[in-house]
Write a structure and sequence with these properties.
The chain is α/β, with parallel strands linked by helices. About 40% of the residues lie in helices and about 15% in strands.
Length: about 375
């Protein structure tokens, strides 16, 4: 695989933080896994072993959690949207609110908005999705095809989120279902994070079935606002005993808000640039994710669009459909374990020739085709 790697060496934007594996938190609700298992058409996504990557990276095994088809959509986002909407509707019913359909409002560039719209359509609800400037026509069309109302915003993602929140607040029959949190809006994003826990539970089951019940030694997760990373940290840091894996966050160099925040020790917003890793192009960590990222991540790295493109091509050659965001996990591990300082970082993360590495590939090529320019898609 290495013949395709970028040839020009550079100093990686990387941070390794010893001690995070000793931090512990409460586990996610156990009922989330059963909820997803009962959904029509649900089945666990593949955990595909790729020996060629293990040989390249100098580890024992590399496995890719392939989210290119999750509940009929080309990304993992339906896990969070379906659980959150389930909780929203159950609470409304229990409170005695009007039984008629509600409007689920959100802002997105694609994957999250489409997942909310799909969930609304299947449950007989309505959806109103705000999309920022620069969203690809195919992404807008896919959301509209789920019978959602789509409002295109002449501004960036943060502006779309603001307008979505205002629209939801203006109507008693509307609920904001946003996958990032801020002060005063944290409960529903928390449910979305809980929904993502099914992905991690499946990895445990699949590794056990494959003869590795002790779990992974390193998990690499693409990061936008940090909601998926929060779910990953919660899963692996809520175990009372046993080996804890190293956890690595991977972001685009154009939008490395988590890496920057970890370096400063407090959450900060960064100015974002263009990137093909559209779903990761986020400038501010989610408020509920930040404490988990701060205390539970072992390392963070930023990668280039070229890093991601090469990784996506290599995964495709090995039979895994991965868009730029999904392939970022492989790109990040390559940067961390290779080049100048790679051996020191490998040692700090506790990795050796027998280690098991799990890469989260959060989307397939159908979710975010490369070569179309980058913006946000609702941020892992």
């Amino acid at each position: 695989m290495t013949e395709n790697a970028p040839s020009s060496p550079r100093t990686p934007q990387c941070l390794v933080r010893p001690g995070s594996r000793t931090w512990r938190c409460a586990p996610p609700p156990a009922e989330v896994r059963d909820f997803h298992a009962a959904l029509p058409g649900h089945s666990p996504t593949p955990l595909t072993e790729l020996p060629a990557l293990a040989a390249e990276l100098g580890v024992g095994r590399v496995l890719v959690k392939d989210e290119s088809s999750r509940l009929g959509l080309p990304a993992f986002k339906a896990l969070g949207a379906s659980w959150a909407v389930h909780r929203v509707l159950a609470e409304r019913a229990a409170s005695g609110e009007e039984p008629g359909p509600v409007t689920l409002v959100t802002a997105t560039d694609g994957n999250h908005g489409r997942a909310v719209a799909r969930t609304a359509r299947l449950l007989g609800q309505r959806a109103h999705v705000f999309v920022p400037q620069g969203v690809r026509p195919r992404a807008v069309a896919a959301i509209a095809a789920e019978r959602a109302t789509v409002t295109e915003v002449a501004g960036a993602y943060d502006e779309a989120v603001r307008l979505a929140a205002e629209a939801a607040a203006a109507r008693p029959d509307a609920v904001l279902v946003q996958d990032t949190a801020w002060a005063g809006y944290e409960r529903i994003p928390g449910w979305i994070v809980e929904g993502y826990s099914t992905l991690c539970a499946e990895i445990d089951e699949q590794l056990t079935e494959g003869g590795h019940a002790t779990g992974p030694d390193l998990v690499a997760v693409p990061v936008g606002v940090g909601s998926l990373a929060q779910a990953v940290v919660t899963h692996y840091r809520s175990r009372p005993s046993g080996r804890a894996p190293a956890l690595l966050s991977v972001e685009p160099e154009a939008a490395a808000c988590v890496l920057e925040s970890l370096g400063l020790g407090e959450p900060v917003s960064v100015s974002t640039g263009e990137t093909t890793m559209a779903g990761l192009n986020c400038g501010t960590p989610s408020s509920i994710a930040w404490p988990f990222l701060r205390d539970g991540l072992d390392a963070a790295v930023a990668v280039t669009d070229l890093d991601s493109a090469v990784a996506a091509d290599d995964l495709a050659a090995l039979g895994v459909s991965s868009g730029p965001c999904g392939a970022a996990s492989l790109a990040g591990v390559r940067v961390v374990l290779g080049g100048e300082g790679g051996e020191e970082r490998r040692t700090a993360l506790g990795l050796d020739a027998s280690s098991v590495v799990v890469l989260l590939s959060t989307e397939g090529t159908a979710a975010n085709p490369r070569g179309t320019g980058g913006h946000r898609t609702g941020g892992e």
